[in-house]
Design goal:
about 650 residues, extended, 25 helices, Triger factor/SurA peptide-binding fold
């Protein structure tokens, strides 16, 4: 597979820029930024626009990357919580100010450097010579023009030059390196007092009505039900359109015939071959000589003078199968080049083919085994075939039905009933939804945005056709509307009681940990102090800060390493609430620094490079902040304007 040149020349600076915001994103070519936009730009940096098209494409790309990374199962609420619009726009501004900086600073990538880079790429060569058609096809496959692609390469080279300049300006001294090793490899003897939540629950009284009322009065803004609506809607989907499709017996019979044909084509064969290679530039005599060699080999095998496997090991030019007696293993349809596959399909098991010519040379082919797929009777696959025919029919009528629904809902904007009658569909009703969340069709942000739009909410009109996915669309209108409402105390009393109870338990746990900490500070043994209040003492163990599978939770280890060393004769301790709901008091009994003399020179060099890169990243962060402070940044749409370098 071809590797994108731009990916190969980008170094850490691209990832630093990515790391300066909370959502990862990839660098775009400079050509995308400096090309004019046909519509109003999303933002401008020093007068240079970030086009709406570039912004939307970037947001879409990032959204798809997140969905793919999370296995394709991502809720609309999660995507919305990431606030991708803000993150991506902020990222594009970061990139832009750096682009402007490097151009003003005089960084340039000469055309000859870009040309040499492209011409040296093996993926663009044919027989060792640069092939312009391969290059142009590579660029076109990425949806770019040659000019834009080369502009992006120039920008990447410039950014790499900046990266090198920043990296070379950082120096890691030997004392700094030794100190890092002492801290990195430090071990601490850590014990822990665990105070179980279950021990405290029964000792905490339920909150009084007075306390609940006081909390409600102080936190009224937390108990406001947001503005919400219920919708009436008509849905086009495979499920709603299926009743409109009538599947005939003839269609099912044809589908079964297609199924049988497809199954018969999926024969898996175990194959072996002998290859007599022919160079691409071979003349007629060389081609004929290779064929004669294959014929002679076939005659020897057929006559019984030599086995197929032994002949393959002796003369085959295929290095991948030669030592296995020509065995290619199981070969499924479509795996081999066409002439080879056609010959393989045309011979019976145990029969050696005549010489077969492919781009690689002459082959002798033998099928040693065939595996035919199971063909189920019609009765066993009937329902599945009906569903498949139905789905295909739905695909055919979906566009027309969508056009009809769109037209009908526009012609009758104050009701969905005429549209439903015209299409033979039902008007459905949603559950309550608000601007940020909903179920069913309202799980889609598109639906929620339309529901609270001026036309649908205030003017009480039908929405436009809203595309939700493949063969899936809706038209909505508001059925019921409720403004934001203060929830009465009676509706939230139990919720507040649970909150106050949990807060009281948290406080009781914290007080118990504080009491144990004071006892330890006064000289009591940690185990004695823990036992006195019914807590559990976890015996100390020596741990590194990166310890895994330790008897002490990772969060407690992290807290222990954040503690400063205690004065001589005392123990350092810190209370913390554990993520499992229990309370802990970590106790550090002793500390041993890492030994700089114990690591190899190779490890020191690697660590030095890491420190150097970290310092360079910090330098870039400072540079970005300064550049953003100096730049004139204008944002033309609703988005977070706070810089996040």
């Amino acid at each position: 597979m071809l590797m994108d040149l731009r990916e190969r020349i980008q170094g850490w600076i691209a990832y630093v820029i990515i790391g300066l915001i909370s959502v990862p994103f990839v660098l775009w070519g400079v050509g995308e930024y400096f090309s004019g936009a046909k519509n109003k730009p999303v933002a401008e940096v020093d007068g240079l626009p970030i086009s709406q098209q570039a912004f939307e494409q970037a947001v879409s790309q990032q959204r798809q990357a997140i969905i793919q990374k999370l296995g394709g199962s991502v809720s609309a609420e999660l995507l919305q919580s990431l606030n991708l619009d803000q993150q991506v726009l902020d990222q594009m501004i970061n990139e832009r100010v750096l682009n402007v900086f490097v151009h003003k600073a005089g960084f340039r990538a000469p055309d000859v450097v870009v040309a040499d880079l492209i011409r040296s790429e093996p993926a663009f060569k044919t027989n060792g010579v640069f092939d312009v058609k391969k290059y142009e096809a590579f660029v076109a496959a990425r949806g770019a023009t040659v000019a834009d692609f080369e502009a992006g390469l120039k920008q990447d080279i410039v950014m790499q030059t900046l990266e090198n300049a920043i990296s070379e300006s950082t120096i890691v001294t030997a004392p700094e390196l030794d100190q890092i090793v002492r801290l990195r490899d430090q071990t601490r003897e850590i014990g822990m007092v665990r105070i179980d939540r279950a021990r405290v629950v029964d000792s905490v009284a339920a909150p009084t009505d007075v306390a609940i009322e006081a909390y409600y009065g102080a936190h009224k803004t937390e108990f406001i039900r947001p503005e919400r609506v219920k919708l009436r809607y008509i849905e086009l989907s495979p499920q709603t359109l299926a009743p409109l499709v009538k599947v005939t017996a003839a269609q099912v019979e044809q589908a079964y015939a297609d199924y049988v044909k497809k199954q018969n084509a999926q024969v898996v064969r175990t194959v072996r071959h002998i290859l007599i290679s022919v160079p691409k530039n071979a003349d007629g005599a060389a081609i004929e000589a290779a064929k004669n060699k294959a014929l002679a080999a076939r005659a020897a095998i057929v006559s019984g003078k030599i086995s197929f496997g032994d002949e393959a090991r002796a003369i085959s030019d295929d290095p991948g199968s030669k030592n296995q007696g020509g065995d290619l293993g199981e070969v499924a349809p479509g795996q081999m080049v066409k002439p080879f596959e056609e010959a393989m399909d045309g011979i019976k098991v145990g029969v050696i083919s005549e010489p077969v010519r492919t781009e690689f040379g002459w082959h002798l082919i033998e099928v040693t085994k065939e595996s035919h797929p199971d063909i189920k009777p019609l009765v066993d696959v009937h329902d599945k075939l009906v569903a498949e025919v139905q789905d295909r029919q739905v695909e055919k009528i979906y566009y027309d039905e969508g056009e009809k629904l769109s037209d009908q809902s526009y012609e009758h904007p104050d009701s969905l009933i005429p549209s439903a009658e015209a299409l033979g569909l039902k008007v459905q009703t949603s559950d309550w939804l608000n601007r940020d969340s909903g179920t069913g069709i309202a799980a889609s942000e598109k639906v929620r945005q339309a529901a609270f739009s001026k036309e649908v909410l205030e003017q009480k009109l039908n929405s436009n056709l809203i595309e939700l996915g493949a063969n899936h669309a809706v038209v909505i209108r508001v059925d019921q509307h409720e403004p934001a409402t203060q929830l009465p105390l009676a509706d939230v009393k139990n919720q507040i009681a649970r909150t106050l109870k949990q807060q009281a338990i948290d406080q009781a746990l914290a007080d118990a940990a504080k009491q144990i900490g004071k006892a330890i500070d006064s000289g009591k043994e940690p185990q004695v102090a823990a036992t006195a209040v019914g807590a559990t003492w976890v015996v100390p163990v020596w741990l590194k800060r990166t310890a895994r599978d330790a008897p002490i939770p990772a969060e407690a280890i992290q807290a222990a390493f954040a503690l400063p060393p205690a004065p001589e004769g005392q123990l350092a301790s810190k209370a913390l609430a554990l993520s499992d709901g229990n309370e802990a008091l970590v106790v550090v009994q002793a500390i041993k620094d890492g030994d700089p003399t114990a690591i190899s020179e190779q490890d020191k060099k690697a660590l030095s490079a890491e420190i150097q890169q970290a310092q360079a990243q910090q330098t870039l962060g400072v540079l970005l902040k300064a550049l953003r402070d100096e730049a004139k940044i204008t944002i033309h749409q609703k988005a977070e304007k706070t810089a996040t370098p």
